[in-house]
Amino acid sequence: MPESVISIQHLSKSFGSFQAVKDVSFQVFQGDVFGFLGPNGAGKSTSMRCMLSLINADSGDIRLFGLPIKDHREDILRRTGSIVEKPDFYKYLSAFRNLDIFARISGTNSSKKEIYAMLDFVGLNGREHDKVGGFSHGMKQRLGIAQTLLHNPDLIVLDEPTTGLDPQGIIDIRNLILRLKDEHQKTILLSSHDLSEIEMIANRMVIINKGKSMVEGSVKELMSTENLFIRLEVAPQEKTMIVLKNAFPEIQIQAKGENQLEFHLSRNQVPNISQLLNSHEIAIYSLESKRSLEDYFIKIVQQDAI
Amino acid sequence: MLFKSVYNEFIKIAAKPRSYLGIGAITLLVGVILFALKSDGLSILSFVTSSFEQTLSFEGNLLNGNLIAFIILQMLLVQIPLLVALVTGDLISGEFAMGTIRMVMTKPISRTTLLLSKFIAGAVYTACIIIWLGIMAMIFGRIFFGTGDLIVLNTDGLVILQEHDVLWRYLSGFAVAFLALLTVASLSICLSCFSENSIGPIVATMSIIILFTIIGTLEVSVFDSIRPYLFTTHMASWRNFFEEPLPKTEIIKSVIILVAHILLFLGISIYTFNKKDISA
After folding, report:
1. pLDDT tens digits for A158-194?
2. B96 φ, ψ (degrees, to nearest 5)
3. For the segment B15-50, what is each residue's pLDDT rounded down to a tens digit?
4. What pLDDT is stored for residue B37 in this prediction?
5. Residue A238 pLDDT > 70, yes or no?
6. CB A136 within 8 A of CB A123
7. Mutate to test the interface with A, among B107, B275, B277 (most CBs of A within 10 A)
């Protein structure tokens, strides 16, 4: 069993009468790229702020590297690099000077050479002495990641690092995160509401909604147990619906357009569809099956709403 | 960590254009006052001394650098709190407004250390303002008006201080004026801990100073008991160094009250900042 790097148990936090986090629990192990998923307003940022001691939790147990944050804040933060919400810098200072300032209070003595190397690592070479006020959002994100790495932390916490980026920016940040995992063996907690991103990067995840953790586990395992989304183009449409309903009474079929049908079906039953429809002399023009975290996520969130 | 954080704060203050407003404003104002006194200073002085001319005869250079420095201090030490608050009121709330507080507070630095480093940097900035004012008032005053004995008009009458007896009074006066301005800096840092925008603490600081000054000057008995303890009552206590004989008890009392206010504001700041949720 790998070492637990983050352990959150029954975390709750209210702001006045609004309960932002009700009962969040999850564990992140060494070497994980851990997806922290939830729709906007689910309580991800609040949980992360509690985790990093930016705000005080009302109740619950928060441990990083096995130590409670409230008693060992500085020891923990010395081993953690983070961006909460978005990377904000001193706009009137250069990228180099910003990193210099953060390095000085990160518990490390980064040399000029190391700061330049870090700026090079995140692709900001040549812009070291430009004021951050003139940087694009993507450049600030990259500078933010440089800032998290200055003191060579064991754990990196990134809060929606690709939000607001253009497609190339998203790819750049994603590749950067994968490099951190593969080349530098960092443990990474990554919050996002972009589900495909988590699917591509993370090995484990938790889904939270309305301040509660809904499900936690390996991304692969959680995905493999799920229904697939099926889109059929068939004729005749009505007969197909009757045949499918008889064969799979639990499914809910939606007719889309003239010949299209959409429904969710258990993964192991998918191979039977074409055989079943052929036996009823139904013409299949296309059969598309999609396994996406998005469907899974929406289902989890909808279950919670019921 | 405190030393490193103080160094960071110096870098931030030095890089902000607003930090130079104070220096620029003092330079400009002193320049204007010097020009005005050079042009029409003698007639102003004779207006003051005319009432004593029947009993006293004045000889030598009365409108000298020492008198000019005194006039400048008297005029400017009322406005300088605003210049100090412009920078110190932004030290904490500015970090909230920019969002950088999130980045700073995810580093292994305690909130108390960060606040103390900001207080120390604010104190050094305040000292720089006072020193610059001193340089402008005393050096340029002497360059343009020469030296001589200092004549000060107090409520009790004229005080004449000999030229060789003036410098130590100025240095001591500047030290007490520094304490008064540090009280303003502490107040604005304290208010800055309650706010997440830069303007609020600056405006609130000036409002409090104006309110306390009004309470201090109103001759209403209901305020008699609190008036001696308001820090604004002691903001002009640098003038005590230009009394003869020196009112030592008054000076010590003023220093104690100013230091007590600084410690009080600093204590409130540390408590508030440590309890504050960083949700900006």
Report:
1. 988 887 777 887 888 888 888 888 888 889 999 887 7
2. -70, -45
3. 988 888 888 888 898 888 888 888 877 777 676 666
4. 83
5. yes
6. no
7. B107
Q: Which of B103, B116, B275 should one mutate to test binding to chain A, selecting the residue with the greatest count of A CBs within 10 A?
A: B103
The predicted pLDDT at position B57 comes to 67
Chain A CB within 8 Å of residue B4 CB = yes
Question: Is a pLDDT exceeding 80 seen at residue A301?
Answer: no
Domains of chain A: 4-217 (3.40.50.300), 227-290 (3.30.70.3400)
Question: Whose structure tokens read 């253009």?
Answer: A166
Judge: B99–A88 Cβ closer than 8 Å, yes or no. Answer: yes
Which stretches of chain B are DSSP H helices?
Answer: 2-15, 19-49, 65-76, 80-88, 93-98, 100-104, 111-134, 141-145, 167-192, 199-217, 248-275
How distant, in Å, are the alpha carbons of B13, B14, B128, B233 from that of B19? 6, 7, 11, 27
Asked whether the predicted pLDDT for residue B257 surpasses 70, the reply is yes
Domain tally for chain B? 1
Q: Does residue B280 fall inside a structural domain?
A: no
What secondary structure letter does DSSP report for B20?
A: H
Top residue of B6, B20, B102, B110 to mutate, by most chain A CBs within 10 Å, is B102
Provide the shortest C-alpha distance from residue B8 to chain A (in Å). Answer: 6
Give the number of residues written for chain B: 280
Q: Cα B142 from chain centroid?
A: 22
Q: Looking at CA atoms only, how far is residue A257 from chain B in angstroms?
A: 47
What range does the domain containing B191 cover? 2-275
Q: Number of residue pairs across A and B with CB atoms under 8 Å?
A: 84
* Residue among A73, A107, A147 whose CB faces B103 most closely: A147
Over residues B158-206, the pLDDT tens digits come to: 777 787 888 898 899 889 999 999 999 999 999 999 988 888 999 999 9
Residue of A nearest to B10 (CA): A101
pLDDT band at A295; cut points 50, 70, 90: low
